User: Fold this.
Amino acid sequence: MDQLTYAKKVLSDIGMPKQQQSDLCALSLLALCDIKDHESFSDASNNWIRIHDIIQFVNTNYASSYAENSRETFRKQAMHHFRNAALIEDNGLATNSPNYRYRLTPEFLAVIKKMGKREYNKAVKLFLSSHESLKSKYASKKAMPMLPVRINNKDYHLSPGSHNLLQKDILEKFAPRFAPNSECLYLGDTTQKDLVKDEKKMEELGFDITLHDKMPDVVLYSADKDWLYFIEAVDSVGPMSPERIIDIQRMTKQVECGKIFVTAFPDFKKYKRFSEQIAWETEVWIAEMPDHMIHLNGDKFLGPR
Assistant:
């Protein structure tokens, strides 16, 4: 058997659903093992790896042609299910962090290394015998206290982490001060991308919903002023740069209400780190100084251009 067939076999042998025995899932597994065609599975490793690295690996070593924008497909079809089955673990960072990575669990790596050997069936049985406890073990790493937040008069829970803590501050500290009586049209949780997404309202305002992947972290709408607040919550990446504004303007070119662009930071130290990347004629809000804002140039403060 070739390596791809072997990878599909082990996914079948440990009981993964048929959808997770596909070429994409098998190739993902080979990338996680760092096994190229004709290499021995006994040399498999479980180094930390990004989805970007997985795509590069399978395109280079297995004549695939997955586009860079297929990361979400890999995440949903392969990585999500692999993690739930204790085949892999992540490093605990926010999914939008550039340092977010996955690796094989040591227990599953032990199965992979026996591929093609007499001990393989024994290794599979050993893994399956402790499978439920392994799932509990690795799931417990994700069982951290959630962040309660009230959005549009409904109770939600954000997954833990500094990025979502900043988003909570935006809703609870920024909005009452600078966008009173506004409603949240969009908010993306680090593990549930579209936690709040009012497509009906956005379409009424003129959003091009087909470009929703360009959405900033938080979108607020003030009916009183007919203003939209596009807010990037910056913990590790992604201030309101000129490029981001172009993306948002393209998505909202039919929108007639006023547009305000805001970059939110947890503290002044983080703001200084990203200050040179922020576009002119935008606003900066810092959670540790919630009553104040920084306006970058222009003749107006906190208003649409």
In short: The chain is about 40% helix and 15% strand. The mean pLDDT is 89. The two ends are 63 Å apart (CA to CA). The CA atoms of residues 184 and 220 lie 5 Å apart.
